[in-house]
Amino acid sequence: MSAAAAQRLTEIKKRYPHPHSAVMSALYLAQEELGVIDQRGIQWVSEQLEMAPVHVQEVATFYTMYYKQPVGAYHFQVCRTLSCALRGSKHLTEHLKKRFHIKPNEVSADGKWSYEEVECLGSCGTAPMCEINDTYFENLTPEKLEAIIQRIEKEKPELRLSTLTDSLGDGLQGQPKSEVR
Amino acid sequence: MGNHRQILLKNIDHPDQHTVAGYESRGGYSVIKKAMGLDPLAVLEEVKKSGLRGRGGAGFGTGQKWSFIPRNSGKPIYIVQNADESGPGTFKDRLLLERDPHLVIEGQLICAWAVQSNFSVIYIRGEYGYPYIRIQRAIDEAYAKGYLGENIFGSGFTHHMIVHRGAGAYICGEETALLNSLEGKKGQPRLKPPYYPAAIGLYDCPTVVNNTETLAACVAILENGGEWYAAIGTEKSTGTKLISASGHINKPGIYEIEMGYPLLQFIEEECGGIWKGRNLKGVMPGGSSFPILRADELAGVNIDYESLSKAGSHVGSGGFMVMDDHTDMVEAALNVAHFYAHESCGQCTPCREGGHWIEKIFGRISKGGGLPGDVQLVESICGQVAGHTICAFGEALAWPAQSFIRKFPEEFRGRISEAREGRVISRESMNADVGGSH
Asked: Which residues contact B51 (CB under 8 A, 6 or more apart)?
C-alpha cells in the first residue's frame, strides 16, 4: 500500500470521533489500490487503525462492496430486485452471459469483464438498470447495454467514483437522473 | 407535477439547485438563520406541531424523537442522517441528495440547532456514487460559506457535518445497525431496549437518527410554521410524501403528493395508468417490507398512514411498486424472498434460517416441484420469524411472503397441483423474468 493511501487515511480518521469509524473508508482505499480485499488489505487496515485483523476481516466480509475475489476491469452489476425484474432485468443478464461467455462472478480471460446480479440499487423508476464500476446506467434494454459495451471498448472510460464528474449528460452516464414528475 | 402542492420538490428542476449559489438564490439557508434566532426548544415545538412522521418507513413522530434527547447528559449529542436508501422500490432520497443537497443540509442543521448537536453524519449507501459526490461537494460549499463549522451566523454555535459511505448492506438502514456500522463494526442491529438510540446511540452518546426526506421536510416546517404543515394532508398523516413509483406503470418516477390522496387516482393520473393497456393486479404501496394489496382491495384506499393501515399495508418508505395482470405472483414472491434471504444479517436464527427456507419453498413451487403442504409451511415459518428477531427485519421478511400466499393462494396452489399431477408446463416467464414485460 502506498504512502499516499496512508496519508489519506490519516486525514479521514481525524473526521470521526473514533478512528475505528474509518474502517470502511480504509477498506475502500485498500480496494482502490489492490483491486480486491485480501490478506494484504486486511493487514494494512488493521495496522493503520490499530484494530485486530479479525475485526477488519469481519467488516470486510459483511459488506458486499468489498470484493473478496477479483472482478474485471469493467464489473457489471445488474439489479435483479422486483422493480427491475418486473421490467425485464433478466434479459440484461442474459445478454452479458452471451456477450462475455462467462457466468456471474467469473472474470473473462482478458481480465476485462465480469458481472453479477445484485439487490436493489435504488433506481427503480428507471428500471431495468445496471451499475458498471461506480456508474449507473438506467432505462436499459439489451440493445442499449450492448451499445454501452461498444462505447466502453472504444473509449475505455474508467467509470470510477474518482472519475465521476458533474457532467451528467455526457452520454456514457446513460440516463442517471432520477425522473421527476 | 399535477396539482399537488410541491414542498420538497418545488425547486428540484432548477439546473443550478445543487449549487450553493443556486440554493441561496431561492431563499436557501434563510430558514436556518431564522431558526437560530429562536430558542432550540421552540424549534423542536414547531416540528412537533407539524405532526411530521419519519419518512424512512416506520413513521415515528419526528418531534417526539427529538424530544427524547437528554440535553444535560454531559455527553456529545450526535445526528445521523439515514441515507442508506436500500429498500426495494425506494429511490426518493437519492433525488434529494443529487438535486437539492443543500436542502438536506439545511434540514439537518435545523435538527442540530433543536437538539444542540455539534456533529452529524450523513450515512449514504455505498452504491450511490453520484449522490455522494453531490452531497460532499455541497457540504464543502456550505463550509466555505460559513453555514457549517464554527460560529455559524456569528452565534457561537458550532456544527460539523461529514458523509460516510456504506458498502452494500440493506440492514444498515436499520438505525442501530447503522450506528454499529458507523462505529466500525459489522452492521448488525443492537439488542433492544433501549428502543431508541436517543440516550444511547453512536458511541453510546445521545443520537437522533432521521431519514433524508424527514430532515428535508423540516426546512419548510420552520419556514412556514408547524401548524401550516399540519394543515396539509390528513389529521394523522400530515404534509406531503415523496412516492417512488415503479413497476408496470406508464410513468415511473418520483412524485410529491399530499397525504390522503386516493391510491387508484394516483396510479391513473400521476403514474399514467398501467402500461400496455393492461389491468392492475396488485401494488406494494410502501416498499417490499409491507404487504401487497390486490387490485380489488384498493377502492376507497388513500395514500396515508390511517388508510393504508386499515387496508392491511403501510405508507412505509413510499416505495410504490405496481404489478399488472400478467405478473406471475409466484415469481414476484420468490424475487422478494430472495432479497430478504440475501440481506439477513445472520444474527438471529429465525431470520437467518427462515429467509432461506421461504426462498427455497417459493423456488421449488416456481420450478414445478412444490409439495402439497408448502403454502401452510410458508405460513408457519412466517409466524415463527415475525416478532422473534432483534429488529424489524423479521417482519419485513415475513409480512410480504405471507401476503403473497394469502392474497393469491390459487396461483401457489395451482402451481403445486399442476406439478403433482405431472402437468408441469414450461412457462416462458419462469426463467425469463417475473413476467409482464412481454
From this structure: B61, B226, B229, B230, B236, B238, B239
Reference B284, options B376, B171, B408; nearest CA is: B408
A157–B contact, CB cutoff 8 A: no
Average pLDDT over residues B278-294: 97
Contact B165 A28 (CB under 8 A): yes
Question: Is B263 within 8 Å of B257 (Cβ atoms)?
Answer: no
Query: Which chain B residue's Cα is nearest to A80?
Result: B335
Identify the bridge partners of residue B256 per DSSP, sorted by sequence position.
B242
Phi-psi region of B172 (alpha: psi -120 to 50; beta: other; left: phi over 0): alpha
**Residue B122: helix, strand or coil by DSSP?**
strand
Q: Which three cell numbers stand for residue B130?
A: 453520484
Give the per-residue pLDDT at A168.
45
Residue A60: its pLDDT value, please?
A: 98
CA of B12 vs chain A CAs: smallest distance (Å): 8
Give CA torsion, residues B92, B393, B292, B310, to 10 deg.
-90
Q: Model pTM greater than 0.80?
A: yes
Give the C-alpha separation, B342 to B344, whole Å: 6
Asked whether A123 and A85 are in contact (CB, 8 A), the reply is: no
Q: What is the CA radius of gyration of chain B?
A: 22
Closest-approach residue (CA) in chain A for B185 = A59
Which of A71, A80, A83 should one mutate to test binding to chain B, selecting the residue with the greatest count of B CBs within 10 A? A83
Q: Which of B90, B343, B437 sits opposite A122 (nearest CB)?
A: B90
Please name which of B253, B251, B265, B217 lies closest in space to residue B237, comparing C-alpha atoms. B217
| A62, closest residue in chain B (CA to CA) | B186
Cβ <8 Å between A62 and B187 = yes
Dihedral sign for Cα atoms in the order B252, B254, B255, B260: positive
Calculate the dihedral angle through the C-alpha atoms of A124, A126, A130, A136, rounding to the nearest 10 degrees: -100
d(CA A163, CA A134): 9
Q: B342-388, pLDDT tens digit by residue?
A: 999 999 999 999 999 999 999 999 999 999 999 999 999 999 999 99
Cell of B107: 434540514
Hunting for cell 473526521 — which residue is that?
Answer: A15
The residue type of A77 is: Q
What ipTM, to 2 d.p.? Answer: 0.94
